[in-house]
Amino acid sequence: MEIYVVALSQHRGVKEVTEWMSKTSGQILAQVKQVVKVGQGVVGFGRNISGLFKHAITVGKRVRTETNIAAGAVSVSSAAVELALMKLPESSHGSARMLVIGAGKMGKLVIKHLVAKGCTKMVVVNRTEDRVAAIREELKDVEIIHKPFSDMLTCAAEADVVFTSTSSETPLLLRDNVNDLPPVGSEVGGSRLFVDISVPRNVGSCVSDLENVRVYNVDDLKEVVAANKEDRLRKAMEAQAIINEESKQFEAWRDSLETVPTIKKLRAYAERIRVAELEKCLSKMGDDISKKTRRAVDDLSRGIVNKLLHGPMQHLRCDGSDSRTLSETLENMHALNRMFSLETEVAVLEQKIRAKQNQKIQ
């Protein structure tokens, strides 16, 4: 993230940030939103940087909503979970009994993807409990039951879906092992699913010949991943068009901030005139006027100034809400500076303030 902040400070990186945000996961979007929230009021996290990340978050949400770019698994582990759920009746997604054999890197990813899909309970077979305990600690509110490898067949008998991801050089589940397992219920389709993402395979090749058993391996999953990657590339092209459009809007907003000092000067100039004329008016009215009358005259003067400033202020803003270009806005800024001698007014005001401060010191 620091790279993008530096890029912005050098008037670059707007497009890069929006592209980065649009392609990240929902989890990272949430993390960046938290960064923006914490960064408010912190020195260095000014209007430009805050505006950049808020706009990038908006663009990320828009891309994910309009293109659905996050849909479709593009890794073997996520494809394994996606494929298993596709083969199960939708009504059984919350009740299907899940077994994960192996808690290494791939097994952990399978567990995470299962949790992301709403699974709240599963059995994990692993040689030691340490890895399972670490995963359990990371994934709160999920029931993860550890079983040793000696209980693997017993666990498989009680599972509707079995994911395998171990480094075993020989198959763990053979035809005879699986043939002896009790059948699964019709509520999960009547077939036990084996999703083998191990290389070499953990499920014997002859297991797929058994009735009421369906086996999917890495080769099947690679086809799913490849198809999803192609689809995501097409969606990325759609996302690029959105990013280009939103980047131009952000750049226009950022460049329009150049008019902010003029807006402040014009308001200060008008306010000085208002206060001076108000004091003259009140002095002529005498000391016996009521607070209600003073307030009414003050409100009247404010209302007049605000209405007179409304038009000029509108022409000093370039936020994409109208057809005005940035160059037109900047021309309006220079014109107002000349017409009201705002640069001179500020210099004179600063001299007066310094003079008063010097008098107080003396």
Helices and strands, in order, run as HHHHHEHEHEHEHEEHHHHH
Biggest sheet character = 6 strands, parallel
Distance between the termini: 51 Å
Average pLDDT level? 81
Strand sequence of the main sheet, in spatial order? 3-2-1-4-5-6
Structural class: alpha/beta
Number of contiguous helices: 14
Shape: elongated
Beta fraction = 5-15%
Number of strands: 6
Rounded to an integer in angstroms, the radius of gyration calculated over CA atoms is 33 Å
Percent helix, as a range, is 55-70%
Low-pLDDT windows of residues: 1-14
Describe this structure in words.
By secondary structure, this protein is an alpha/beta fold. The chain is 60% helix and 7% strand. The protein has 14 helices and 6 strands. It has helices at 2-9, 14-22, 26-39, 47-67, 76-87, 105-116, 130-138, 152-157, 175-179, 218-256, 260-285, 291-314, 326-339, 342-361; strands at 98-101, 121-125, 143-147, 161-164, 192-196, 213-216. The chain has a 6-stranded parallel sheet with strand order 3-2-1-4-5-6. Strand 4, helix 9 and strand 5 (192-196) form a beta-alpha-beta unit. The two termini are 51 Å apart. Mean pLDDT is 81; it is low at 1-14.
